[in-house]
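cron nightly-structures :: item 1 of 1
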Amino acid sequence: MDVQGEDQADRQPRFGFPRRVRGPFSIIVSRLAIAFGFIVLGTVVVFLGRSGYRDSTGHPLGLLTSFYYSAVTLTTIGYGDVVPASDSARVVNTLVITPLRLGFLLVLVGTTISALTERTRAEWREQSWRSKVRQHTVVVGYGTKGRAAVATLRERGTRPGEIVVVDVGAGAVGEANRHGIVGIVGDGTRSEVLARAELGKAGHVLIATASDETAVLAALTARRMNATAVITASVARAENVALLREGGADNVITSSETAGHLLGVASLSPSVGTVLEELLSAGLGLEVAERSPDPAEVGRDPRQVSEPVLAVVRDGEPLRYSDPRVGAVRADDRLVIARETPGARRRGAGRDEKG
């Protein structure tokens, strides 16, 4: 592990924005094409006004000589064997050929200019992003859990521009950028790093770090910076759940125990395991969702709702559908339901069609 590199990344968090990456060969070819285009344009201008030019050989200017003059002039070689002789030719050289020469030179030194302006462009994009971002989701940790969380968010309709990834690895942030997501290379337990992610304006924070200790520190820092955001964290060991909740996490997922429970259920009842996998995996056909009740559902028992109701969220507290406190559905309730994902691929559908 490169500790020195990670420490440096922690001290100097860096933004990563989605962008289209072009290869060096593509860049060189495009710049050569632009430069050649300038020469061709200069050739056309000189050839159309060829009567105003004088060749040292005494011959009238042809297309080849016009091309030669344009090339040596735009490249600033200038042998002097072809010169503008008339006033109109000199005006054209001043107003047309000279700007073409400057453009040609700018293309040739484009790599240097690009390097000099890259920092300015990055700062402008960061400031523009900061002025627009609101109620976004900050994902701390972009490992296996973080990627799965982001994939689920996008499956449920969250746009890439509404997600910010924070990770100590530049490679992880680069992968997020390739999926259209803004990323920050830095330690998600440090307030200055989370501040660059505009955590103070975030609506949700997902903590999916590799270690429980890091998750606790990230939750403490995030809650101190934002008192209203919904913080959801993942831990490996159940004994750390209380620490996360005391640190400000609203929801804590115990990954190891949850995975073990699913394994046990699947071994005893494979069908139940299959249904649970579909509920927990994006795009397999079933999903757990939360919605407001329809007007026709208000006043009914939760078991009379068209979709299976798992719980009723009332005054911020989730109540099981069978809880006697639920009674009838209210207009201000939220229903946690199980439903079929529209357009989702069905397990075994391909085999059924082939059969």
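cron nightly-structures :: done
The first strand starts at residue 14 and ends at 16.
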